[in-house]
Amino acid sequence: MKFTGKSIKYGDNVDTDVIIPARYLNTSDKKELASHCMEDIDKEFKSKVCDGDIMVAGFNFGCGSSREHAPIAIKESGISLVIAKSFARIFYRNSINIGLAIVECDEAVEGISDGDRVEADLDAGVIYNKTTGKSFQIQPFPEFIQKIIQNGGLVRSIQVGEIK
Asked: What are the strands, taking DSSP E only, across 10-153?
């Protein structure tokens, strides 16, 4: 799995209430959720995010409630991959379940600035900062998790027979 995009960077402890504010949880419409993604922390997010962009964040990304709305909003906004120093446990699993690629890599977070061009090859276990020329090693996903992400989530993977 390969991803290429512009980085959009945030700090530590970005919680699910900031990713998708609770006032919008009365809908399950993915595009509506995406239209409000990150608006309480970054008013410009909606206008600057492009399909394929890569979100970069510090420690404890996705802390707070266990709602699936947060990774859905991120994925539907156009973000293809989230790189963070660490993820809240439930957010991590919810992201995989809905097919949002996420990886932990302290060095990459430190070595990527907002707006840098980033390329990630999750099969090879490498993140490249195309702006600076630096590369960072990561642990590749196990094959079954790669299939879940490639299929668009756990439910879709079951539907297509990848997981039984």
From this structure: 54-57, 81-84, 101-104, 117-121, 126-129, 134-137
Q: pLDDT (tens digit, 9 = 90+) per residue, 60-114?
A: 999 988 789 999 999 999 999 999 999 999 999 999 999 999 999 999 999 999 9
**Inter-axis angle of helices 89-98 and 69-77, nearest 10:** 50
Can you tell me the distance from the alpha carbon of 72 to that of 152, in angstroms, rounded to the nearest whole number?
11
* Per-residue pLDDT at 164 exceeds 70: no
Closest CA to 49 of 8, 13, 81: 8
Beta pairing class for 117-121 and 101-104: unpaired
Inter-residue contact 55 to 81 (CB < 8 Å) = yes
Whether the pTM exceeds 0.90: the reply is yes
- By CB atoms closer than 10 A (0-12, 13-18, 19+), residue 143 is exposed
Query: How long a stretch of residues is the chain?
Result: 164
Query: With contact defined as beta carbons under 8 Å apart, do 52 and 71 qualify?
Result: no
